[in-house]
Write a structure and sequence with these properties.
It contains nine helices and 16 strands. With 258 residues, it is an alpha/beta fold. A hairpin with a 5-residue loop joins β11 and β12.
Length: 258
């Protein structure tokens, strides 16, 4: 099963960092947050990634192209113009980086990578959020409910849109947050059937608006409720929070050992 990661936005709320690189390439513990997200999926056995790039997409491509330089010891012999890599260990990843446009909306970015996904179930998440969610349990939940799309819901007071969920985990509505809310938000970590492409149109399609609303109307959207850790990196303060957790050795999303 392929994993699609949205990594093309401008990252304006964290412009202190994103003016130099796309937000998913901002580092936590000297590794891009994109790497952290991929390591979690890889821990559960999912190693085929499609990166929906856009803003400064060349930075993402160059980082993967030079993966050994970033992650191993090397010797440069300038006289012979050669390079020796002292450790050839690498992640078991297949990474497709797609330039989905500078100003393309989230739904439009997913639509642009349809040809790389094919007619199969796929996972979808945002390139700026980490969690200790159990990916295997998420997929099991999705298969049991048999709907076109499963989103991961978190009960957290944030500035995001609110999911209204019934007792059978079916999503009944999606609205903006109000001051009285301590409600369920869409934390990403989605599982989608290829039928979702029928709900996506052009580059202006915002996944979180029309497509999810239409899926709700068709009773094809369910929510996997996660009560563990989740944190996006939308601001410098949130980056520092994640950095502190990583440096303390207590990062909840670090489920891997190597």
């Amino acid at each position: 099963m392929k994993v699609v990661i949205l990594a093309g936005g401008l990252g304006t709320r964290i412009s202190e960092e994103s003016h130099l690189r796309p937000k998913p390439m901002i580092e936590i513990g000297e590794k891009p947050i994109l790497w952290h997200i991929m390591k979690q999926y890889s821990f559960y056995g999912y190693n085929d990634f499609i990166i929906c790039a856009g803003y400064k997409q060349h930075v993402i491509k160059e980082w993967f192209a030079d993966y050994y330089l970033h992650n191993t010891d090397v010797t440069f012999d300038l006289k012979s113009n050669s390079m020796e890599v002292h450790s050839n260990y690498s992640e078991p990843w297949r990474v497709t980086v797609v330039d989905t446009g500078l100003h393309t909306m989230t739904g439009g970015r997913v639509k642009r990578v349809q040809k790389y996904i094919g007619d199969e179930t796929f996972m979808l998440t945002y390139g700026d959020g980490v969690s200790d969610i159990n990916i295997s349990e998420l997929i099991k939940f999705h298969k049991e409910h048999g709907k076109y799309c499963t989103v991961t819901a978190m009960n957290i007071v944030q500035r995001f849109g609110i999911l209204e969920i019934d007792e059978e985990d079916k999503v009944e509505g999606f609205r903006e947050k109000s001051d009285i809310d301590g409600s369920m938000i869409n934390a990403g970590f989605m599982v989608c059937e290829p039928k979702i492409f029928d709900y996506l149109e052009g580059d202006e399609t915002v996944l979180e608006k029309g497509p999810l609303e239409h899926l709700i109307a068709d009773e094809q959207l369910v929510a996997y409720q996660h009560d563990g850790f989740w944190q996006c990196m939308d601001t410098l303060r949130e980056k520092e929070k994640l950095e502190n957790l990583w440096e303390s050795g207590e990062a909840p999303w670090k489920v891997w050992t190597t």
